[in-house]
Design brief:
Elements (H helix, E strand, L loop, with lengths): L18 H15 L3 H23 L5 H14 L10 H23 L21 H19 L3 H12 L4 H8 L3 H18 L5
Length: about 200
């Protein structure tokens, strides 16, 4: 296998094996399956930032993300007795995330809910920054532009981008989460890249 075999073809970054991380999460989930509440708390602590961050990106805003993230863990606890490590734990977990996000976005669409931009005080998981104010402002503006661009993508394209770019998932795992094929995932990422390139042209 040549070095080129490891290079991404979609422009959304490389992926790592994460085998040690997966082994730890699977081991915790096996204990959770036996009603081990200590293991469940450890599992939540190990994954909550990833779940919350992914929720924010998939929803297109902070509103409701924390509540929905809690529902992910409720689903995991409820499904503990049926859990089998036939795939990576995160693949199984993000499949739950995707289903909840889909239901939430469909419900919001029916209700005509429009996201509002959260204030600085409402933004969780953000520490104080000591950089130059102008640099900080520019970075914040770019982050908002990227979030808006992602939010405007079709559902599956946005999910594929988030899982590939931020979770560094390989194509096979994204395909499992989306319940589709690897070629379909590559096509989704290609189309998303084309759209984002246009929307972010002024920042590139």
């Amino acid at each position: 296998m040549t070095p080129q075999d490891h290079e991404p073809t979609d422009g959304f970054g490389t992926t790592g094996s994460g085998s040690d991380d997966n082994a730890q999460l699977v081991a915790l989930m096996r204990r959770v399956r036996e009603d081990d509440e200590v293991a469940f708390r450890a599992l939540v602590e190990a994954t909550e930032d990833r779940v919350y961050g992914t929720m924010v990106k998939m929803l297109g805003g902070f509103e409701g993300a924390e509540d929905l993230a809690q529902r992910v863990y409720l689903r995991i606890w409820q499904a503990r007795g049926r859990y089998e490590p036939t795939a990576k734990f995160t693949t199984w977990m993000f499949s739950i995330v995707r289903r909840l996000v889909l239901n939430e976005r469909r419900g919001r669409a029916r209700r005509g809910v429009v996201f509002r931009e959260p204030s600085a005080e409402e933004r969780p998981h953000e520490g104080k920054v000591s950089e130059d104010p102008s640099t900080t402002a520019a970075a914040g503006e770019l982050a908002r532009v990227i979030e808006n661009a992602l939010a405007g993508l079709p559902e599956d394209q946005r999910t594929a981008v988030v899982l590939r770019r931020y979770e560094e998932m390989p194509y096979e795992e994204i395909a499992s989460v989306l319940e589709t094929t690897v070629p379909a995932v590559k096509s989704l990422l290609f189309r998303a890249r084309q759209t984002l390139r246009v929307k972010l042209a002024a920042w590139l």
